Amino acid sequence: MEFISTRGKVEKIGFLDAVLMGLADDGGLLIPSEIPQVSASKLKEWSQLSYQDLAYEIFSLYIGEEIPKNELKQLIAESYATFRDPEVTPVRKITDKLYVLELFHGPTFAFKDVALQFLGNLYAYISKKQNEIINILGATSGDTGASAIEGVRGKEGIRICILHPHQKVSKVQELQMTTVHDENVMNLAVKGTFDDCQGMIKDLFADTVFKNQYHLRAINSINFARILAQTVYYFYAYFKVQNADEQKVNFSVPTGNFGDIFAGYLAKRMGLPVNKLILATNENNILERFIKEGVYKPGQFHMTYSPSMDIQVASNFERYLYYLLDENAELVASLMAQFKKEGQITINQENLAKTQELFAAHGVMGAECLQTISAYYQQHQYLLDPHTACGVAAFEQCNGSDEVCITLSTAHPAKFNESIERCNIEQTYPEQIKQLFDKPQYQQVVDNDQDEVVELLKKFFV
Ligand SMILES: N[C@@H](CCOP(=O)(O)O)C(=O)O
Questions:
Q1: 91-107+227-422: what CATH class?
Q2: Catalytic choice (112, 155, 211, 276)
Q3: Which ranges in 99-170 belong to alpha helices (H)?
Q4: What is the mean pLDDT of each run of 10 residues along the chain (462 residues)?
Q5: Could you tell me which of 260, 231, 225, 229 has the C-alpha nearest to residue 136?
Q6: Is the beta carbon of 256 within 6 A of some atom in ligand 1?
Q7: CA angle 135–141–146, rounded 5-degree value
Q8: Alpha carbon of 421 to those of 59, 107, 224, 305: distances in Å?
Q9: pTM reported for the whole predicted model
Q10: Ligand 1: which residue has its CA nearest to atom 9?
Q11: From ligand 1's centre to the CA of 447, what distance in Å?
Q12: Which intervals hold domain Threonine synthase N-terminal (predicted)?
């Protein structure tokens, strides 16, 4: 399998090089040169597999011979041995129409662990095998940071710096990142928004001289390995809910950076018979507006009950755009340049219709989010975190009467007690989260200033 850039200006590279490159050197995003196709008979075989065996089958399609079979199996086994549920990502039936795919059984109680436990181990593997320096630079609106740090903390040959928006993540998210006092970890709290943090790291990755000199590696979903690992649970969950009366299966996906839902899109393109992808978001609803109106244009930033989705510019939108525009890299490059200059992309009616055939969207406002948490707690004794609540509210808006829906539960409610308390629900923290409150924090608060960040990175990355 070879990888190319959405902007068409990068030579084809293999999987491991794509992982190391992170953001494509031409500023685009890496994607497989062809999407592997999975036949109906293969899907039937796969439906019987454990999570780990399924991950092995799917990863192999993209990794080929680059990692020997036994070593890949070992990497997968280690990555999912840290999960608290033997199924890794179990599916719970809530009603006849609604299933919840619990993605929060990993070390940091968020879906990011599913990919980042693997990517952390993969980086350690590459560092050892190829003697590569791995200096990770990432941006987070709360979950990715903690999960990436947990994935690589203490690992030899790896350093990690995470930028998060100061005081714009939940207390537990902040503690998960900043109570880590390992020598290879640096947390920068930027006085700005997640978009500022993501903008900064994207600029630094696009500066190929700086990137290569400091061996910058990505853990955000700009890295294709993240997307790949996240496709696995779409297959796994689909197989769990396939029903006797063969109702269509939708997925409702809380999303900010378009990465998780893009993984679902990729699964569908590989041959998984997903019906509709329901995009759930909050007041920061650029993606909802794109799906409903065909205009991609950042709006006003809002702090919400679901801070991980407080994002205006969604990284993976470019990957979708590439496929929507029939893999026309030149057109993608010119539209992205236009976006940089004019701050907006508008697609034509034909492409809007294509988008709406596959996606539905609902931006869930604060009151609706809290109402959904309360209602599901009272009626089904199931406590949703605020992001999952947005997913469930979007399911209620967008699911058809002859369809079932799997909502991705992206995080454990204990990560967002600020919102849960507003519903007058008292929850018990898992022990790992309770302990965080007694630990000292290590972070540097910095201005929203790229030069200041660069100076700190130069000292930290060797
Ligand atoms: N919601 C994310 C933002 C970063 O997204 P990613 O999928 O590109 O890592 C977070 O919680 O940090």
A1: alpha beta
A2: 112
A3: 112-130, 143-152
A4: 98 98 98 98 97 98 98 98 98 96 98 98 97 97 98 94 98 98 97 98 97 98 98 97 83 97 98 98 98 97 98 97 98 98 98 98 98 98 98 98 96 98 97 98 98 98 88
A5: 225
A6: yes
A7: 55
A8: 40, 23, 37, 11
A9: 0.98
A10: 220
A11: 21
A12: 3-80
Domain ranges across the chain: 91-107+227-422
Q: Indicate the DSSP class of residue 430.
A: P
Whether 112 is catalytic: yes
Inter-residue contact 36 to 62 (CB < 8 Å):
yes
Nearest atom of ligand 1 to the alpha carbon of 315: 8
CA of 113 to the centre of ligand 1 (A): 11
**Distance from residue 140's CA to the centre of ligand 1 (Å):** 5
DSSP state of 308: G
> How many residues in total does the chain contain?
462
DSSP 185-211: EEEEEESS-HHHHHHHHHHHHH-HHHH
Q: Is the CB of 257 under 6 A from ligand 1?
A: yes
259 Cβ closer than 6 Å to some ligand 1 atom: yes
Instruction: Please answer whether residues 216 and 462 qualify as being in contact, where contact means their C-beta atoms are separated by less than 8 angstroms.
Output: no
Ligand 1 mean position, distance from CA 26 (Å)? 22
Most informative mutation of 140, 174, 253, 284 for ligand 1 (most atoms within 8 A of CB):
140
Please answer whether residues 204 and 451 qualify as being in contact, where contact means their C-beta atoms are separated by less than 8 angstroms. Answer: no
